[in-house]
Write a sequence for this structure.
């Protein structure tokens, strides 16, 4: 509404349903699920080192940097086209409402402290459901391993043994099939480079291929999952709309049902 006060005209904010929702959301705790990344940040071993180059300074009138990095860098999103040539879904094709989902966090961090090769099984999921309830359809399931605490060390993320074999946790293929085929979730995420455990990649990234070839997306290299409850939070994923991008860094965060 417009309010006239002497010579001044002011516009008062409209108490719209959207403003009420946003105001209510800001009263909750927000958790950043995204790593800050730079040229020395952990990267998939096959990728070249990124470049962050200053091309204009304030002496030129403005400060600008040029960035050279692969789409799958930092906390990033993988759309279906990333692994399956028969899929036609790029980052730009993801519906906005697909990027705001109920967030389910399954904690396997204790198992990972005992073995870096630990994976999430169907039995683990059923044990989680016995405690927290059935995983809801159309949700985002995140695997917490606390691997994200190894950031920003490339060495700690790869975790190579004396023979050069990497060791880091991941998902069982059957566990992925369970959450998608039995629980009908929308997407999944994790804290590591890959969906699959490092030691179970003899036949390729079969878990990641399964997710993407069935039209789903995933977010890799998540952070701060230890600050999010098992249920009750929502994940929000913001990503640039790069043309025909088979992956891109994101800013993901969770709104947690706790007072800020």
């Amino acid at each position: 509404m417009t309010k006239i006060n002497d010579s001044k005209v002011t516009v008062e904010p409209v108490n719209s349903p959207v403003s009420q929702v946003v105001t209510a959301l800001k009263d909750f705790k927000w958790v950043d699920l995204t790593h800050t990344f730079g040229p020395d940040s952990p990267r998939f071993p096959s990728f070249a080192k990124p470049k962050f180059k200053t091309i204009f300074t304030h002496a030129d009138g403005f400060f600008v940097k040029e960035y050279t990095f692969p789409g799958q860098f930092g906390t990033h999103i993988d759309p279906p086209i990333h692994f399956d040539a028969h899929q036609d879904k790029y980052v730009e094709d993801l519906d906005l409402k697909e990027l705001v989902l109920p967030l389910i966090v399954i904690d396997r961090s204790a198992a990972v402290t005992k073995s870096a090769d630990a994976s999430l099984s169907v039995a683990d999921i059923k044990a989680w459901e016995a405690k927290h309830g059935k995983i809801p359809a159309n949700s985002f399931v995140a695997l917490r391993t606390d691997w994200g605490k190894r950031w920003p060390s490339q060495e700690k993320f790869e975790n190579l043994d004396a023979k050069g074999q990497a060791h880091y946790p991941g998902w069982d293929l059957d566990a992925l099939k369970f959450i998608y085929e039995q629980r009908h979730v929308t997407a999944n995420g994790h804290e590591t480079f890959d969906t699959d455990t490092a030691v179970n990649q003899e036949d390729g990234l079969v878990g990641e291929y399964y997710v993407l070839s069935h039209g789903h997306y995933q977010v890799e290299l998540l952070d701060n999952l230890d600050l999010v409850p098992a249920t009750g939070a929502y994940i929000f994923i913001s990503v640039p709309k790069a043309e025909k991008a088979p992956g891109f860094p994101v800013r993901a965060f969770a709104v947690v049902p706790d007072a800020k």
